[in-house]
Amino acid sequence: MELWLKIVIVYLVCMNIIGFFSMGMDKSRAKKKQWRIPERVLFTIAFLGGSIGSFVGMQVFRHKTKHKSFVIGIPLILLLQVCGVALLFHYVNSKSAQRTDFAMGTVVTEVVYGKDCEVAVEVLQEQIQMLDTRQLSWRTDGSSVYVINQRLAQGEAIPLTNQEFEWLDRTLRICEDSNGALDITIHPLIEVWGIESDSPVVPTQEQVTDAQAKTDYRQLHITETGSLYADRNTVSIDLGSVGKGIVADEIRSYLETQDIHGAVISIGGTILVYGEKPGVEEWTVAIQDPRGVQGEILGSLTMKQNGVISTSGDYERYFMDGDKRYHHILDPKSGYPAESGLSSVTIVCEEGIVSDGLSTACFVLGYENSLPLLEQYDAEAIFVTTENQVIVTEGLRSAFSLTNENYELQP
Fold first, then answer.
1. Closest Cα to residue 348, out of 394, 293, 406?
2. Going by DSSP bridges, is the β-strand pair 408-409/389-392 parallel, antiparallel, or unpaired?
3. Which residue from 29, 244, 310, 405 could staple onto 267, CB 3.0 to 4.6 Å apart?
4. CB burial class (10 A; 0-12, 13-18, 19+) of residue 25?
5. Torsion of Cα atoms, 39 then 40 then 45 then 47, to 10°
């Protein structure tokens, strides 16, 4: 709580105590027919912030005044001061802070509401950077994933921290449940395609086959004691497909410990909605048009409760070879960019790691094959096909509004 607010609260408490006992003292003196406190003094005490105490004192001590203006004045002052306190409370709770930065290879935007908002946006940015560079990045020497991959290459079993265990166990379950549509060992294929580099190329079939031989999430195992090992030392992990969702979950855990009542945090294609936005009942989140420039929207989604929205699409990172678009979402089974008839998939659910992971898995699987997976994880989705058709699962139909005339909403 800010210092000025503490001072205001202490001041009001003191004034109301003074107002209460002033009424009692004045009543006692009246009974004894002694000198009384002038009514203008009692009125001033109420006016300066002691109206609640003065009003309560009037009732408790059955204080009677000679002037109607006094009887009417204190309740009126009380009403005005209560309104003033309510406005102050609204101001404090609607206080907001926002910040835009670059992390995890994308733009990060934070909008936070509540008394601790200014501190929160600073801490959140530090937390995002720390999670990326110290834990999730496979590139950064010394990060948790980097160290795990180094030890897997040496054929070791790696004891996992509780946090690492939770992340990997949850992600490997999604890999299994999606029948490998999500595969956190796919990095050798990503390297062959070079889509994350400045010079992506279409690899030869031999290169693709060689890279596939180094991938397979089924080669990874977690023991009952919480250690990770691989059947082959050529297998490594890349949490890029779930990393932003992991960060969203960690951010929500932090916000729950602060005096924050609402926030929306955008990490590239993953958006965390937390709490309530002052003055409205719903959050409105824009969904990117997969064939438009950045900022052109497909439609909007309203959120009434906490959740994470993750979108994966063929527009995020891609290159053209002639008329052919090669995007970054690879199908582990073919070794090539997924061809499922989709241009984007948006997933909405409670957990960020699930939302992020399912957006990739469902893009690879396609609409029909994704439905059992969505039901299993109690998730909802918006599918955009390459034919400009939009398909919305039942739980989101009333929440999604299509605003782009280039697309057709399917019944």
1. 394
2. parallel
3. 244
4. middle
5. 120
For the chain, how many helices (H) and strands (E)? 12, 17
Looking at residue 398, what DSSP letter applies?
Answer: T
Residues 88 and 179 in one domain: no
Model pLDDT, residue 32:
72
Distance CA 335, CA 330 (A): 6
Residue in the block written with tokens 């205001």: 8
CATH of the domain at 157: 1.10.3980.10
Cα 314 → chain centroid: 23
- Domain region containing 362: 282-409
Could you report the average pLDDT of every consecutive run of 10 residues in the chain (411 residues)? Answer: 67 78 76 73 74 74 63 72 69 76 89 87 92 92 94 95 95 97 95 85 93 95 94 94 96 92 92 85 90 90 91 89 87 95 96 97 97 97 96 95 94 84
Residue 120 domain-assigned (yes or no): no
Query: What burial class does residue 141 get, using C-beta atoms within 10 Å of its C-beta: 0-12 exposed, 13-18 middle, 19+ buried?
Result: exposed
Q: What is the pTM of this model?
A: 0.79
What's the CATH number where 317 sits? 3.10.520.10
Backbone angles phi, psi at 337, to 5 degrees: -55, 135
